[in-house]
């Protein structure tokens, strides 16, 4: 019997199936001696908190950098596509390096790679700060050597920031998966906290970054470096390593083999749903701040010809034309001219724009906190479908809002009342949608337990899907915005919700969301 047990365990592990989980449950219930190895993977509660805080600080730093850079580019670049390509280069390096770091962290431990992240991030911000100092007012009308040098410096800076996130996210998620082996309830709380830290860092840093830029301009990059320093100290002093040397030595297979986890059916069929939602979030969080703050320099600054005599009206109309052209030259193209009759396309101050997006992020965080108590009691695909219903509500209400005026300066009291009347329904939509991301992350973590020794590689897919979604989503969204303004962004969002729904329905019909974790 003593020989059959290890043989059976080896066969179970080689199959990478759910039988591994069932066997580990039985072992834990009977206090098998091998439990000691598993217990070594557990870390203190304070260490888990430090792990999650490191993600929060890192995301705040990178998103604050994004906001500062976004306003710097917004003053000098009119095209949403060009600005997005520069800013979202961040996600290219994240999606390239994340799966590799995830696989390496299975072998070398989680903490070393998490420590590298804030160091690389600080180097990146120094590059961005240097670019803004050398080129405070670049001439983007002519493609010359200085402009190319500026773009290269900005691209390198953003690529390095993406690498910093790639160093943290997969190793961090692998760390949390190590610490919550066997408990769906604990895992739901921990990964939801991680997602709150991620989304909170991204969303709440937008108004924070707006205030930093208002106070310091591009000198605010120094604040970002300070945030990265706090991140390093948090990891170095308060985080324990989750993998023992025994566990690291067991994960010495090929890195390429670990990266092949994407071929697993449950992962492959899950990708379209989460990728589509990440594409929406990437477009919404990246583009909304920019397009809300597009300049509308001619609002309320024309002369009404009706107040003049019929003979003088042609002269007044000509003066209006000259005035418009003069303002156009000073302030860039008028957003109301590009896409007229769209309330949410231009006219907001940078501070107001960032506060609006920050409010969305705050409601999203509250929603995830609520879902943290509900997700363990429901099928994961049920939560995902409810989230997509929320996305439909958001899209519908924002589309209606967009039709209510030319810009904020033209709103009547009646229109403002209508906006406030529908606001609770919009908040409900955001809360419903917020359940999608923690449900997806819990689903990915559950899949990781069916692939022993590859938890870091599997959880690294989180960064890949986030990175691909944010980059491609923002880039394609920028094209839709350039073509149709805010309406274009809403059409794009509706298409993504349909794609995600198809994937979720497939997972549900094949019971891919019924994987359970092994019990402690």
TrEMBL record:
Gene3D superfamilies: MFS general substrate transporter like domains. One of its GO terms (cellular component) is plasma membrane. It comes from the Bacteria. The chain crosses the membrane at residues 48-73, 79-101, 113-135, 147-169, 190-209, 215-239, 267-294, 353-375, 382-401, 421-447, 459-480, 486-507. It is a multi-pass membrane protein. InterPro entries: MFS, MFS_dom, MFS_trans_sf, MFS_Transporters. It comes from Candidatus Chlorohelix allophototropha. It holds the Pfam family MFS_1. Residues 47-512 form the Major facilitator superfamily (MFS) profile domain. It is found in: Cell membrane. PROSITE patterns: MFS (PS50850). Keywords: Cell membrane, Membrane, Transmembrane, Transmembrane helix, Transport. This is MFS transporter. One of its GO terms (molecular function) is transmembrane transporter activity.
């Amino acid at each position: 019997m003593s020989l059959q047990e290890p043989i059976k365990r080896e066969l179970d592990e080689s199959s990478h199936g759910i039988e591994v989980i069932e066997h580990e449950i039985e072992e834990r219930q009977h206090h098998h001696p091998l439990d000691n190895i598993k217990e070594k993977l557990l870390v203190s509660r304070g260490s888990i908190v430090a792990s999650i805080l490191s993600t929060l600080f890192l995301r705040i730093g990178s998103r604050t950098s994004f906001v500062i850079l976004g306003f710097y580019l917004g003053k000098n670049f009119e095209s949403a596509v060009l600005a997005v390509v520069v800013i979202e280069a961040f996600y290219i390096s994240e999606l390239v390096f994340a799966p590799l770091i995830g696989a390496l962290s299975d072998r070398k431990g989680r903490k070393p790679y998490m420590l590298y992240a804030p160091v690389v991030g600080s180097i990146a911000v120094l590059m961005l700060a240097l670019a803004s100092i050398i080129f405070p007012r670049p001439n983007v009308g002519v493609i010359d050597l200085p402009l190319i040098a500026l773009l290269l410096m900005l691209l390198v800076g953003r690529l390095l920031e993406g690498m910093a996130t790639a160093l943290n996210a997969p190793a961090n998620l692998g760390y949390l998966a190590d610490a919550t082996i066997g408990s769906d309830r604990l895992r739901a709380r921990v990964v939801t906290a991680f997602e709150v830290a991620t989304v909170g860092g991204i969303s709440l840093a937008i108004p924070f970054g707006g205030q930093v830029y208002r106070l310091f301009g591009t000198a605010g990059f120094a604040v970002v470096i300070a945030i990265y320093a706090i991140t390093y100290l948090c990891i170095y002093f308060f985080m324990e390593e989750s993998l023992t040397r025994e566990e690291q030595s067991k994960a010495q297979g090929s890195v390429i083999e670990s990266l092949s986890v994407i071929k697993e059916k449950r992962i492959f069929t899950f990708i379209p749903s989460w990728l589509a939602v990440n594409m929406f979030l990437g477009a919404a969080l990246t583009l909304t701040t920019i397009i809300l703050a597009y300049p509308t320099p001619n609002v309320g600054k024309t002369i009404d010809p009706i107040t003049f005599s019929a003979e003088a009206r042609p002269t007044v109309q000509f003066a209006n034309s000259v005035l418009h052209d003069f303002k156009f030259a000073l302030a860039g193209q008028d957003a109301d001219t590009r896409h007229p009759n769209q309330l949410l396309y231009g006219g907001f101050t940078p501070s107001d724009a960032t506060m609006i997006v920050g409010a969305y992020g705050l409601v999203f965080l509250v929603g995830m906190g609520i879902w943290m108590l509900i997700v363990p009691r429901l099928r994961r695909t049920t939560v995902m479908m409810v989230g997509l219903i929320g996305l439909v509500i958001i899209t519908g209400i924002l589309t209606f809002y967009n039709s209510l005026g030319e810009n904020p300066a033209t709103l009547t009291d009646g229109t403002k009342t209508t906006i406030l009347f529908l606001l609770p329904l919009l908040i409900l939509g955001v809360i419903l949608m917020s359940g999608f991301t923690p449900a997806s992350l819990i689903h990915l973590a559950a899949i990781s337990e069916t692939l022993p020794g590859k938890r870091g590689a599997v959880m690294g897919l989180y960064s890949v899907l986030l990175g691909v979604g944010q980059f491609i989503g923002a880039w394609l969204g920028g094209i839709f915005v350039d073509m149709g303004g805010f309406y274009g962004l809403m059409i794009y969002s509706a298409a993504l919700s349909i794609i995600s729904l198809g994937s979720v329905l497939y997972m549900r019909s094949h019971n891919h969301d019924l994987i359970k974790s092994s019990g402690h």
